[in-house]
Model the fold of this input.
Amino acid sequence: MTRRTVFFVSDQTGVTAETLGHSLLTQFDGYEFDLVTLPFLDTLDKIQGAVEQIEQRAEEQGVAPIIFSTLVQDELRQAFHPQQGRLIDFFDSYLPVLERELHAKSSHKAGQAHGLVDASRYDQRMDATNYALNNDDGARTNDYARADIILTGVSRSGKTPTCLYLALSYGVFAANYPLSEDELESGQLPLILQEYKDKLYGLTIAANRLQQIRRERRATGSYATMPQISFEIRAAEAMFRRYKIPYVDATRSSIEELASTILVNTGIERRVRP
Amino acid sequence: MTRRTVFFVSDQTGVTAETLGHSLLTQFDGYEFDLVTLPFLDTLDKIQGAVEQIEQRAEEQGVAPIIFSTLVQDELRQAFHPQQGRLIDFFDSYLPVLERELHAKSSHKAGQAHGLVDASRYDQRMDATNYALNNDDGARTNDYARADIILTGVSRSGKTPTCLYLALSYGVFAANYPLSEDELESGQLPLILQEYKDKLYGLTIAANRLQQIRRERRATGSYATMPQISFEIRAAEAMFRRYKIPYVDATRSSIEELASTILVNTGIERRVRP
Done:
């Protein structure tokens, strides 16, 4: 396995540089990357410190690091010149193209992407996060009128993290309701869910993956046994089909994929953007 | 205000295309962008549908849309050729550079960046999210030994969404403890927090911003009055200084910025990456 150090350099959070770099690096199999994020390089002193750190690493390893930069302020950009390293400068690549296309100069101001651009975006995310917390795990069912979506499925199928991700990333109001053993045995969709049937979305998951997740949570009782898990999953999927509830298999999906899939399939509008 | 339609095109979630495009677009003041995400374009039929949608929009508006693409599979990339639109293709720009630098061919496989690359990444995020939920808002204080960090501050200063973001994005175990009125009046750090002083990080916030947030939550009583809010903030900051607890001002920061600031200032390792 070949090793290579990768720096993410930013005068802000570094989230954009990390996202860009990560997407590209995952295209290279057989490499192991040591990832170092250097965010908030917002003074010339900090830029100088970063340059020294990068050059020192290059000397130690005898190979030039790869550097993904989203430095945007001109003074900082001009000062950032490591002698060693392959620099991939995100704004340098694309801002000129967009300036020509939009017939406009870019502002080269920091803090636009993941800063608090306006309080309303923060408030939307806060409200949606509070909604997800208050309506998690069936804790409360009298506020579904405000839900954009209500996720349902068996325990540990991924409902909670998906709801929180929808709230934090998109400002979407997402509740979740776990199907109880009684409900699964009866095969009847709970009345409260029938009332909001158009907002329902099911999650399902492969039995062996669910067993792995449940074992880590609670190894005792029937909760993590294969007969119990198989019954729950079959009953939940049968219920989704009987009531024509759309559903998605969470087994091989990340939280990001589940959230995107649900937004695409339902047409729910994002209130904020990443 | 000039309007322009922007498409984010991907054979996966579109999260990377959105993040990168958003960073670039925020550099242009005075423009209003209509944002359309077209994720999961993973068949030639879907690619064709996307091309038609883009061309139709161009005709309606009489101006070419901007298109950010993270299509990675070769067959799909070759089929994606809208007649109208300024295409910014992230993989096209950088994969050749990295291939030369790494002396390796890229895989051009989809689903690497935000897919479930391995179950352990999912488990880390799940575990951290459950930890944040169980240790939110001082609900539980007997599991702080497992915390990477414990956020503290007055009610509504942004502790909960920051903890959840740290968990979902970085797999970091983050608890939070709201300082009560009694604790603020006494000026004594609660004993349970004294025990884990090295894990503490404070959040503070400007009084007028906090008032705005609290009014939306509960307008009655003294909770959202300026004397109460000013007292709480002053007492909390005094406590942070007295006990030498590092703290950050959440007033002008997004959740991403707060999370990054805390990771940088504490040196806490990310268990997973965005």
In short: Chain B has a mean pLDDT of 91. Chain B has two domains: 2-102, 119-266.
